[in-house]
């Protein structure tokens, strides 16, 4: 039966080898049953450029490449931690990079795909930070530094972000309802799938006289991952362990 899978927020790194192995097993065992696998951001805990080759990166790329070679179409969206994933990574894995947001048609249902950070508009400190680090000149300067310098900087960003987050009220780190509504209206979408907030749930949103659905993906853990599986019958959640 035809099906499409959605995952996000795996946060893979050399410090999370259990999750890395879980993802690699998922790619060979579960993902090949799907026609499409969409990874909606933050596959990696921090991506400092496609020229970073330390383990377990090569093993992850090989497993993704095997999946795309075997016939499952692999789609990748940037998250706030891995927005430096570039063309080389995509070439090596067979993944296709999607813009955030992207509208797709899932068995007749117009569905908007996002990482989710763009929806958190009340978190103004983050919105400002995101604008700054995604500036092409800033990125060019960052990429011109050595791997070691970039690793140090990423560590600093992570630490500063952790500190900033600990001082923020939980509510401002969630999506803003008006922002969600405006994306549904602008893209004429019935469904929205996103990650980032780590608050998995299926929300029903009434706008005018129409129902819309917001499916929030879960982050992955060392022993299990969660996915949303879409078939002609509808949207369902699944745990992989
Ligand atoms: O990531 P997460 O979910 O924990 O928190 C996010 C927001 N934080 C971020 C920052 C990333 O975690 C940092 C890691 C990036 C690694 C990539 C390396 C490549 C960098 C390339 C640069 C070109 O996205 C967090 C949100 C939270 O989601 C919920 O939505 O609140 O936002 C922040 O915490 C941002 C702070 O509010 C403001 C910025 C503080 C950092 C300032 C850094 C200064 C560094 C100086 C370096 C010399
Ligand atoms: Mn994120």
UniProtKB/TrEMBL annotation:
It comes from Candidatus Thiodiazotropha endolucinida. Pathway: Glycolipid biosynthesis; lipid IV(A) biosynthesis; lipid IV(A) from (3R)-3-hydroxytetradecanoyl-[acyl-carrier-protein] and UDP-N-acetyl-alpha-D-glucosamine: step 4/6. One of its GO terms (molecular function) is UDP-2,3-diacylglucosamine hydrolase activity. Binds 2 Mn(2+) ions per subunit in a binuclear metal center. HAMAP family: LpxH. Substrate binds at residues 80-81, 123, 161, 165, 168, 196. Mn(2+) 1 binds at residues 9, 11, 42, 198. Coiled coil: none annotated. One of its GO terms (biological process) is lipid A biosynthetic process. Keywords: Cell inner membrane, Cell membrane, Hydrolase, Lipid A biosynthesis, Lipid biosynthesis, Lipid metabolism, Manganese, Membrane, Metal-binding. It is found in: Cell inner membrane. This is UDP-2,3-diacylglucosamine hydrolase. Hydrolyzes the pyrophosphate bond of UDP-2,3-diacylglucosamine to yield 2,3-diacylglucosamine 1-phosphate (lipid X) and UMP by catalyzing the attack of water at the alpha-P atom. Involved in the biosynthesis of lipid A, a phosphorylated glycolipid that anchors the lipopolysaccharide to the outer membrane of the cell. The lineage of its organism: Bacteria, Pseudomonadati, Pseudomonadota, Gammaproteobacteria, Chromatiales. GO terms for cellular component: cytoplasm; extrinsic component of plasma membrane. Its cofactor is Mn(2+). It is a peripheral membrane protein. Pfam families: Metallophos (PF00149). Its EC number is 3.6.1.54.
């Amino acid at each position: 039966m035809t099906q499409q899978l959605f995952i996000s927020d795996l946060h893979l790194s050399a410090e999370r080898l259990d999750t890395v192995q879980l993802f690699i097993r998922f790619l060979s065992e579960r993902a090949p049953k799907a026609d499409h696998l969409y990874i909606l951001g933050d596959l990696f805990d921090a991506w400092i450029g496609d020229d970073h080759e330390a383990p377990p990166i090569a093993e992850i790329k090989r497993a993704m490449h095997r999946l795309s070679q075997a016939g499952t179409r692999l789609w990748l969206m940037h998250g706030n931690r891995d927005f430096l994933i570039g063309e080389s990574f995509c070439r090596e894995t067979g993944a296709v990079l999607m813009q955030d947001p992207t509208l797709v048609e899932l068995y007749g249902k117009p569905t908007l795909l996002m990482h989710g950070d763009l929806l958190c508009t009340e978190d103004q400190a983050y919105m400002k930070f995101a604008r700054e680090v995604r500036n092409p000149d800033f990125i060019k300067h960052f990429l011109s530094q050595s791997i070691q310098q970039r690793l140090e900087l990423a560590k600093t960003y992570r630490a500063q972000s952790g500190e900033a987050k600990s001082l923020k009220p939980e509510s401002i780190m969630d999506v803003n309802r008006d922002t969600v509504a405006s994306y549904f209206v602008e893209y004429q979408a019935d469904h929205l799938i996103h990650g980032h907030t780590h608050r998995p749930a299926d929300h029903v949103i009434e706008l005018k006289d129409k129902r819309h659905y917001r499916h929030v993906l879960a982050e992955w853990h060392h022993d299990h991952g969660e996915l949303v599986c879409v078939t002609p019958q509808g949207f369902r959640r699944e745990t992989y362990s």
